[in-house]
Write a structure and sequence with these properties.
The chain has 228 residues and is an alpha/beta fold. The chain has one domain: 4-Layer Sandwich (Metallo-beta-lactamase, Chain A), CATH 3.60.15. The strands form 2 sheets. A 7-stranded mixed beta sheet has the order 6-5-4-3-2-1-13, covered by helices on one side. The chain is globular. InterPro entries: Metallo-B-lactamas, RibonucZ/Hydroxyglut_hydro, UPF0173_UPF0282_UlaG_hydrolase.
Length: 228
């Protein structure tokens, strides 16, 4: 299983030769300069919520690649109004019944807001728990620290988790460390930091704090790939 980070909260996970893309925000992203959005491939696109810094390039990539898009009904409806036809509507609850080639996925709680770029209601934000033959992982989406994270180990033995660490709009690195305890995962990929001044963090301190707790915080650079 490989994770390629693009910028902000956009990354892709490759499982069994399939590429799962999350929250594509390349166009207009100051942290993604030099990345050609048209070079990004996808078999699946998962969207955690409707904010522009998570869905900006979703429709374009979906229409170019034919990827299956997955997210809450409001976000999927917004994509469909832009001509995207290959979608699955999901929400919080048990694993989606669709026969994904990579395994199973469950929608879980994320404490945040959600509106779409056109100003319409974006539905409930989501996190995603993946169970695959190559390992389990969790993408929290944009969220505050929440006690609901203690449920995650009921559904998955996580190989890694992708958590926001930038603070202000989401958890900061300190809360992400506590979240790693809740979800029983020692390897965390930190996202949603540094893109804008308001979410810049002391990366060295964050890494040191995780190390002191016997855990690993990975803060990949744009286009960096991590193997698990």
């Amino acid at each position: 299983m490989k994770l390629t980070f693009y910028a902000h909260s956009c990354f892709a996970v490759e499982i069994k030769g399939k590429r799962i893309l999350f929250d594509p925000f390349i166009t207009g992203n100051p942290a993604a300069q030099g990345i050609d959005v048209n070079s990004i491939g996808a078999d699946f696109v998962f969207l955690s919520h409707g904010h522009g810094d998570h869905v900006a390039d979703a429709a374009g990539i979906a229409k170019r690649t034919g990827a299956l898009c997955v997210g809450n009904p409001e976000v999927m409806g917004w994509l469909e109004r832009q001509g995207v036809t290959n979608t699955i509507h999901m929400n919080h609850g048990g694993p989606v019944s669709h026969d994904f080639s990579f395994g199973k996925v469950r929608g879980v709680n994320a404490v945040h807001s959600s509106s779409l770029p056109d100003g319409s209601y974006g539905g409930n934000p989501l996190g995603f728990v993946f169970n695959t033959e190559e390992g389990d992982f969790y993408f929290a989406g944009d969220t505050a620290l929440t006690l609901d994270m203690q449920l995650i180990p009921l559904w998955a033995k996580l190989q890694f988790a992708v958590l926001p660490v930038g603070g202000h709009f989401t958890m900061d690195a300190t809360d992400a460390l506590k979240a790693s305890e809740f979800i029983k995962c020692d390897t965390i990929v930190g996202v949603h930091h540094g893109t804008f001044g308001i979410i810049k963090i002391d990366t060295q301190k964050a890494e040191d704090d995780f190390k002191a707790a016997g855990k690993k915080l990975l803060l990949p650079a744009p286009l960096e790939t991590i193997s698990f």
